[in-house]
Amino acid sequence: MPHHPTIIENTPEIETDRLILRKFTADDAPDLLTLLKDREVNTFLPWFPVDTLGQARAFLRERFLEHYEKPVAYRYAVCLKPDRRPIGYVTVGGAPSFDFGYALRKEFWGLRITTEAAAAVSLRLRSAGFEFITATHDVKNPASGEVMKKIGMEYRYSYVEQWQPKNIPVTFRMYQLNFTGSHGTFMGYWDQYPEHFIESGV
Q1: pLDDT tens profile 38-52
Q2: How far is Cα 34 from Cα 45, in angstroms, rounded to an integer?
C-alpha cells in the first residue's frame, strides 16, 4: 500500500481503445488455463506451468480472487473488446517494492497489448497516490524491458537471484517509475542480493 494514498480502491475497471481491464472472476479459469499452460509463455514467469483446470482454479483463487478481499488491490484481467475474455493479466504487488508484473497469451504478442494495458494501469496508480512502482525482467527477456521503457520506467540496476521455485540463477534488470519527484531508487533487491551491478547502455 502506498505511503499516502489519496484513493483506496480495489481493481477498478479500466477501459482503453482496445481493452477492458477488470477483476478476474471464478468463471475465468478456463481462459487463464490457456495462458498458464503455455510452456513458452511460462519461461519467464515465477511459477511452473499449470496443466489442469483444477490447478488453474487454485491459481486464480490464490493469486487473484483472495486479493480482492483487501482494501487495496490492483490485479487485472486483460480482455479484448467486446468479449471481455482474459488473454493476459497485469498485477501490482504491495510494499516495499510495489512490483509491477504482466503476462499475455503468445498469439497476441507483438500487438502492443501489454504496453496498452500496463500504461493504463500505471496512470491509475499515479492518480491513486502511489509514489512509485518497480518491475524486473530476466536479461534473456528484453521484450519485457521494452514494455517497461514504453510506459516511462527507467533502468536502475541489475542483480543475480537464485530464482524460486524454479531454482535457477537469473540476472534481473530492475526498472522504476517514480510518480513523485521525492522518491529515489528502491534498493531492496540491491541490498538483498550480493551480486549486483549497473549495466551500461541498457
Answers
A1: 999 999 999 999 999
A2: 15
Q: Would you state the pLDDT for residue 33? A: 98
Categorize the per-residue pLDDT at 4 as very low, low, confident or very high, splitting at 50, 70 and 90: very low
CATH for 14-197 (2.60.40.10, 3.50.50.60, 3.40.630.30, 1.10.10.10): 3.40.630.30
Nearest to 112 by CA among 139, 141, 91, 143: 143
Which pLDDT score, from 0 to 100, does residue 7 have? 60
State the Cα–Cα distance between residues 1 and 175, nearest whole angstrom.
Answer: 19
pLDDT in tens, 77-103: 999 998 999 999 999 999 999 999 999
What's the predicted TM-score (pTM) here? 0.94
CB 115 within 8 A of CB 90: no
Q: Sketch the domain layout of the chain as residue ranges.
A: 14-197
**Residue (of 147, 34, 37, 47) closest to 90 by Cα position:** 147
Separation CA 119–CA 113 (nearest Å): 10
Q: Where are the beta strands (DSSP E) in 60-167?
A: 74-80, 86-92, 100-104, 132-138, 154-163
Residue 105 parent element (H or E): none
Grid cell in block for residue 122: 500505471
Owner of C-alpha cell 496443466: 51
